[in-house]
TrEMBL record:
It comes from Trichoderma longibrachiatum ATCC 18648. Pfam families: Aldedh. Residues 25-155, 173-371 form the Aldehyde dehydrogenase domain. This is ALDH-like protein. One of its GO terms (molecular function) is succinate-semialdehyde dehydrogenase (NAD+) activity. InterPro entries: Ald_DH/histidinol_DH, Ald_DH_C, Ald_DH_N, Aldehyde_DH_dom, Aldehyde_DH_Superfamily. Keywords: Oxidoreductase. One of its GO terms (biological process) is gamma-aminobutyric acid catabolic process. The keyword Oxidoreductase applies. Transmembrane segments: none annotated.
Length: 375
């Protein structure tokens, strides 16, 4: 259904106002697994976007009057459909993005859990009845939905991981940096390690990467060849300016043009593109510091801040450090890739604003309205 040449490619339409809509323009969706056009996707114009917004605004007039139970059931039905069609959806994800089947299924399972968690919280939204200064007056604070909202996920972010001596931190770094080819918004980009443990940490990191992502096994598949070239350019720029490639060969030829094996680069400086540019691929930089203050400065030296990780045997020290890192989340003794329904998710600085997940996630969609009345 999804494989074929451009002449036979199916065009995926938009869904606007309850109907399929085929725009005037479309573009090829090329599978990184085959290098062939899987299908074509509609390319939206400004008028198409306006039509979608207007349709949503019109539907909101009816939707806002539905009961919490009705909205809950809609959410639960959506979660059920994701579960029922998980096999088909996983195949589409793998074909379109190069995701492994376990990673695709994990994402679908998590999506269902997030939707069910949100459904369970819908009826918990409530207002308040505050006491007013005038005894003959009363007030009600209502909660009502904002309406149509444009939400953009924080794809391009910067994610430092700061390490002190601790077993298994190298494995967590390897997974955090290279899971799904490093194409996760929470993927590790910087690894910061104290100079006293740099040699043994680096040795164990290389061993962990080679064990988890063996050189004789399949290489990570990126979204397209352009992503591979982007990572190669970042590494080439760093190497030309004095950085050391600790692990990997960006010039290696793989079986697919969209494949690239993990790369670890050391001695990266602010003069290099890699220092401040997210690779969104299987590339990570290793930085050495002498003090905790230097580690904190390096971790915060970015315009982005979605998630970070700290590895330490002293929990109090880790908590103190976590409070100083300017990011939306800090995971102590765990990798940067961590998300679940009970935890608010979102970033700081240029990683955006707003949160989803948990009770605070629903707060992003509602506003207060104050109503007063005389007795």
């Amino acid at each position: 259904m999804f494989l074929g040449d451009a002449k036979e490619a199916h065009v995926v339409p938009f869904f606007i106002n309850g109907k399929d809509y085929h725009p005037e323009r479309s573009f090829d969706v090329v599978s990184p697994l085959t290098g062939k056009v899987s299908y074509r996707c509609g390319a939206a114009s400004v008028s198409d976007a306006a039509a979608a917004v207007n349709a949503a605004a019109a539907a909101f007039k009816t939707w806002r009057k539905t009961t919490p139970a009705y909205r809950r059931d809609v959410f639960l039905k959506a979660a059920d459909l994701i579960q029922q069609k998980s096999g088909e959806l996983a195949d589409i994800m793998a074909n379109e993005t190069g995701a492994t089947l376990p990673w695709a299924l994990f994402n679908l399972k998590t999506a269902g859990e997030l939707i069910r968690d949100a459904a369970s919280r819908i009826s918990a939204i409530e207002g308040s009845f505050p006491s007013l200064a005038d005894p003959s007056s009363s007030g009600i604070v209502l909660r009502e939905p904002y309406g149509v909202v444009l939400s953009i996920a924080p794809w391009y972010v910067f994610l430092p991981t700061t390490h002190h001596p601790m077993q298994n931190s190298q494995g967590q770094c390897a997974i955090g940096a290279f899971l799904h080819g490093g194409q996760i918004c929470m993927s590790t980009e910087k690894i910061i390690v104290h100079s006293k443990v740099r040699p043994q940490f680096q040795e164990k990191l290389v061993a962990a990467v080679n064990e988890i992502f063996p050189p004789d096994g399949p290489a990570p598949v990126l979204i397209n060849e352009a992503a591979v070239q982007r990572n190669r350019a970042l590494v080439a720029d760093a190497a030309a300016k004095g950085a050391a490639v600790i692990l990997g060969d960006v010039h290696a030829t793989e079986s697919r043009a969209a494949e690239l094996r993990p790369v670890v680069v050391g001695d990266v400086t602010p003069a290099m593109d890699m220092y401040a540019t997210e690779s969104f691929g299987p590339t990570v930089s290793l930085h050495e510091v002498e003090t905790e203050a230097q580690a904190l400065q390096l971790a915060n030296d970015s315009e982005y801040g979605l998630t970070a990780a700290v590895f330490t045997e002293d929990l109090r020290r880790g908590l103190r450090f976590a409070r100083e890192i300017d990011s939306g989340a800090v995971h102590i003794n765990g990798m940067t890739v961590h998300d679940e329904p009970a935890l608010p998710h979102g970033g700081t600085k240029s990683s955006g604003f707003g949160r989803f997940n948990a009770a605070i996630g629903l707060e992003e969609w509602v506003r207060t309205k104050t109503v007063t009345f005389k007795h």
